[in-house]
Amino acid sequence: MSTYRELLKDANRRMEEADRGEQAALLYLLELTNMEAHNLYMEYEQEVPADIAEQFEQGLCRLIKGEPLGHVLGFEWFYGYRFKVNEDVLIPRPETEELVANVLAAYDEVFDGKQVTVADIGTGSGAIAISLKKEEDRLHMLATDISEKAVMVAKENAAANEATVCFMVGDMLQPLIERNIKLDILISNPPYIPNEEVMEESVVDYEPHVALFGGEDGLKFYRIIFENARKVLNEKAFMAFEMGYDQKERLTALAKEYFPEAKIEVLQDMSGKNRMLFIYLHTDAS
Ligand code: SAM
Ligand code: GLN
């Protein structure tokens, strides 16, 4: 039998020896015990119940092997909502929450509470589309992905979070073009890692490659979207993308090529990295 303090100390030492992330063992224990950090601190010298200790040990072994916490738990929190995740979807990232927040702000500025049609291209777990719909019910929310298995997970997440989103399986904008759908807002966090990039093993070994890699230079999917965007956008519209921190120059140059009249803006994430690209077409913002 051990106390929470002993359990966590031992776990952190083993995680460090395996060269794994510092916070994962603590975050895992908090989720297992349903505690906030300050509650755990109050309980620090108490004995850990046997069933929790056993479950924690099993999960910890998976973390030590390099499995992401989201897979061990089976879910990830995103924008305050809980999303099921598995090997078929990208685990939604904190920087993507900032994309959602900035889209909501831009919606207020450009469309000011109007009903608009919005699509999330490459929705994965559905994190972006579902959070947006939960936060702003006036969005008519569509979402697409090429992976049927991802769309199945996204549909489960929409049901669990009671959000109405219309999901379509297909290649980039194709499902919208086929149905002659016109959008006011297009959002995408496409795969943007260059094919040859060396990555952390907990990402590259466990997350779907179709969600990560964006061709030789990482820009393949932006090109496809830019090339076809006018087929699916209303005249007054905006687009919002997540991007790699080192893609600002190349991506803004590409955006200017396709949308010379647009207002193009790059926003930084909380760690000060260039992370989001906004393109405004014929809006008051332009
Ligand atoms: N939107 C989710 C998020 O932000 O957490 C997932 C983003 S993940 C980086 C990119 C997603 O694009 C994956 O779900 C992947 O299956 C999807 N995808 C890859 N190629 C695609 C294509 N040709 N057409 C549509 N979706 C695609
Ligand atoms: N941010 C993700 C990562 O670092 C990649 C997401 C993407 O390609 N859109 O693994």
Automatic annotation (TrEMBL):
It holds the Pfam family MTS. Residues 114-197 form the Methyltransferase small domain. One of its GO terms (biological process) is methylation. Residues 6-74 form the Release factor glutamine methyltransferase N-terminal domain. S-adenosyl-L-methionine binds at residues 122-126, 145, 189. Substrate binds at residues 189-192. Gene3D superfamilies: DNA helicase RuvA subunit, C-terminal domain, Vaccinia Virus protein VP39. Its EC number is 2.1.1.297. It comes from the Bacteria. Keywords: Methyltransferase, S-adenosyl-L-methionine, Transferase. Belongs to the protein N5-glutamine methyltransferase family. PrmC subfamily. This is Release factor glutamine methyltransferase. It comes from Longicatena caecimuris.
